[in-house]
Amino acid sequence: MAPSISKPAHKGASSGGAKGAKGSKPLGSASRVNKKNAPKRPPPTEMKSKPRTMQSNMQKKKKRVYTEKELDLPELNAITPVGVVKPKGKKKGKTFVDDQEGMMTILAMVNAEKEGQIESKMMKARQLEEIREAKRKETEARIAEKKNKLENVKDSIRNKKKGKNADKAESSTSVAKTAKGKKKSVAFA
Amino acid sequence: MRQLTEEETRTLFSKLAHYTGRSLNNLIAPPTEEGPAGEQHVFRLQGSRVFYMPLKLANLSVSIPRENLLSMGTMIGKFTKTGKFRLALTCLDVISPHARYKVWIKSNGVMPYLYGGNVLKAHVHRWSEDLPEHAGVLVFDDSDNCLGFGVTARSSAEAKKLDPTGIVVFRQADVGEYLREEDSLFTT
User: pTM value?
Assistant: First the structure.
């Protein structure tokens, strides 16, 4: 019995101890349990963290791509002038034009350009010519007006003179006959 | 001797188009009247000089080293170091059949022109119609021999008002150069 008693006592003690231990270690046991359970739990947490890291990696990669593009882009603040910079993607060396079609297209472009230039030149020349003609006509008209005015004034003066002369002549003829005697009589000095 | 690049072709053609009209196409693509086997002509660059020659000749030229090759076909002109193009007198035979504007000069004006003088109004026999200012023009004598080329100083309308001693065409090249520049004309 003793052993039976002792066993339970032991058991009890052990159990009590255990209980006590259990009772005393709920926090510690919980941590332990957690620690024990931790390796089981991490996978989801890791799984969660991985996509984040992946996303972040992806974002970083994308950013790198952009920065590279941005490195290609600067034109305004570059030391070398825009015209001198050689395009990066293009092949080195000269591109020859030897096929007939290519030459014909270039020639057509050049011809069209040239004809446009000539046309514009001719248009300009015509406009200038028109303006000059208009100016010349204006000046001619002004000169003609001036001449007319002068002629009119001259005519008027002539008419006046004529009128005066005529009056004078008439008066002189009429008066002269009458005033001849007077004149003679007056011309004492 | 190599083909021209796009840029070079453009500058060359723009210079040629200054003196010639639409028929410049015939230089590259020979008219079909000559037959489908009509020789295709090409432009080739040797040093800074541009030559115009039939394709056959151009293909043959490959067999001669560049340093040893002096000239081939007809010399059209040369590229300057700034990338512009100067037409040479030797291109006269190539461009004269395709001239856009022409000036014919009297017999008393031929000698002054061939000695390197500009064309005066008193020497002009007749003009192409509606000549603009600073346009490329080919100079002919009375019997339609091409004497050279130049650039008009005045438009035809303005030139009418000009006094007889006024310059009408600035000389660019004349046939007299073959004698005057005999020593230096073909030196590289």
Answer: 0.64
